[in-house]
Hints:
The chain is α/β, with parallel strands linked by helices. It has two domains: 10-79, Winged helix-like DNA-binding domain superfamily/Winged helix DNA-binding domain (Arc Repressor Mutant, subunit A); 88-246, 3-Layer(aba) Sandwich (Rossmann fold). It contains ten helices and seven strands. The protein has helices at residues 14-25, 35-42, 46-55, 61-79, 95-108, 119-133, 148-151, 170-177, 197-201, 225-246; strands at residues 111-116, 138-141, 158-164, 185-191, 204-207, 214-215, 219-220. Strands 2-1-3-4-5 form a five-stranded parallel β-sheet. A two-stranded antiparallel sheet has the order 6-7. It is elongated, with a radius of gyration of 27 Å.
Amino acid sequence: MAFFGFKDIDKLSEVDMAIYRYIVDHDEQVPLMRVRDMAKGAHVSNSSVMRFIHKIGYNSFPEFKVSFKNENQDLMRSQQNILNIFTRDAFPHDIEKTIKLVAHLMLDADNIVFFGMGGSGAIAEYGARQAASLGFNSFAVKDPFYPLIAQLQNTSNNVIITLSVSGKTSEIVETLNNFVNSPDTILISVTGNIESPVARIGRYALTYNVPETRIHKYYDLTSQVPCVYIVDGLLMELHNQDIERQK
Length: 247
């Protein structure tokens, strides 16, 4: 039996759901309650509470309270560090200054390209869409074999922002090498590895430091939250500088 893991929610009546929601909203007080306390709080009868307790698999109210208390304590212990993904220490001390410099380059760019693969590609799409919403010519590239060289061939004043957790993906590095000596393209990176080729290849590297997590050797589960945090910071600063310029 498990209150929080109860699977037949769809079989509960409206009265049952009122009791269920009341218990969830008052989880710390439940172990100290009597049947009539719960009934009063949920605005139902005592008998409705007992029918609910039996329906979810408990023989008595005391049995439910003991089980609920243990289950809730286990759940709280498992949740303590869920949102503690990173702190300010995960970023270089001068990250804000670098964001301002990169945003200034984006402000003057004719084309802003967000480039990434896999999960980084999804963030690239997000960044490009948001930049476009701000009125800038921006698009995302998720395919390292996309003819980006041809697309930017007759353009100038381009900024390519590459997103890569490891900064070592060979396909990404090969693509960027085509723009290293281009006077018309500025390379920026957002990466979790300051020593990586992607970080070294561009003018500015916006870096962060979080533990790398992989499963089954090939699947990267390293948190992308710091990357999104930096991208959002870039977009916010870009918007602010755009407003200042228009004054």
